[in-house]
Design brief:
0% of the residues lie in helices and 53% in strands. It is an all-beta fold and 102 residues long.
């Protein structure tokens, strides 16, 4: 493992378009946001999501990720629930990382 690497598990980079909502906002159109999964590992996921709102490290989220097709809903795919805790966020790039919760 690289001396700079802090992760226990390797991350796999990919760009996967999604629409995301927290479980509290799933029933309103304004609660869904376009974004993409940037990378993932066995323990967590890094996302870029536009206009998701303020996130703080330690915040627990229940997300519903709907795979998207050309940044639009893809009704042929089932939504994927993800429970996680924010471990870092960068508001200037609209990125945040979640550690999966069991």
């Amino acid at each position: 493992m690289d001396a700079q690497e802090r992760r226990s598990f390797p991350r796999y980079k990919f760009r996967y378009p999604i629409i995301v909502s927290s479980s509290r906002a799933i029933n309103c159109a304004e609660g869904w946001h376009y974004g993409e999964i940037l990378d993932a590992s066995r323990n967590g996921i890094r996302l870029r999501v536009n206009n998701f709102g303020e996130l703080r490290v330690g915040t627990k989220l229940q997300l519903i990720c709907q795979p998207a097709s050309n940044f639009g809903p893809n009704n042929d795919c089932m939504p994927i629930p993800i429970q996680g805790q924010v471990i870092w966020e960068n508001s200037s790039t609209n990125e945040f990382a979640l550690r999966y919760l069991q």
